[in-house]
Specification:
four-stranded antiparallel beta sheet
Length: 185
């Protein structure tokens, strides 16, 4: 065991939702978000940690890097923290649990920024396959006047192919155009 994995829940920031499936479509220069966008789940929960203080300007930025690609950085997504208070709808942050819900426009912005980085890595010469269809993102929470907070666990983004269009043959059993298992890396 890696030691201390049970004590993560209290003070450290962590993704409560650590796997996110995003639909994609193939483009000539890689892959892009599916139209309309498809997310499962439709919101992600990030626990900012027990000691987290909301920045004075009320905004938090999520800075992400692609694991295994040392310098591949996703453009930061800035989220306005709207504390939930009793009887008010539309809040995205629970001060009691320190949970920030990323959904709606914020989630779309995150997906767009992630795809800007991972999309071009795919294409005719490197199609999405079962061995490369997920990306692991390390996250840092950044706020004005604050030290950056590293999120303890990564967020895994799984790529989901669009459903076959009616009239097209399904290729679930044997992918067409596959080059077999003779690929070289």
């Amino acid at each position: 065991s890696s030691g201390g994995s049970g004590s993560i829940a209290g003070s450290q920031a962590q993704w409560s939702t650590s796997a996110w499936t995003v639909g994609y479509t193939s483009k000539s220069s890689g892959i892009a978000l599916s139209e309309p966008a498809s997310f499962t789940p439709t919101s992600l929960t990030l626990n900012l940690g027990a000691n987290y203080q909301v920045p004075s300007d009320g905004n938090v930025s999520l800075k992400m890097t692609l694991e295994g690609k040392s310098t591949t950085t996703v453009a930061p997504v800035t989220i306005a923290i709207k504390p939930m208070s009793t009887g008010t709808a539309g809040g995205n942050y629970d001060p009691k649990t320190h949970a920030l819900t990323v959904s709606g426009t914020d989630l779309s912005n995150l997906a767009t920024n992630v795809f800007a980085v991972i999309g071009p890595q795919f294409g005719a010469s490197n199609p999405v396959s079962s061995t490369n269809n997920s990306a692991t993102l390390d996250t840092t929470i950044s706020g004005t006047g604050q030290s950056d907070v590293k999120v303890a666990n990564p967020l895994t983004v799984k790529l989901s192919a669009p459903a076959p269009q009616p009239g097209l043959a399904s290729s679930s059993s044997s992918p067409t155009g596959s080059h077999g298992s003779t690929e070289t890396k």
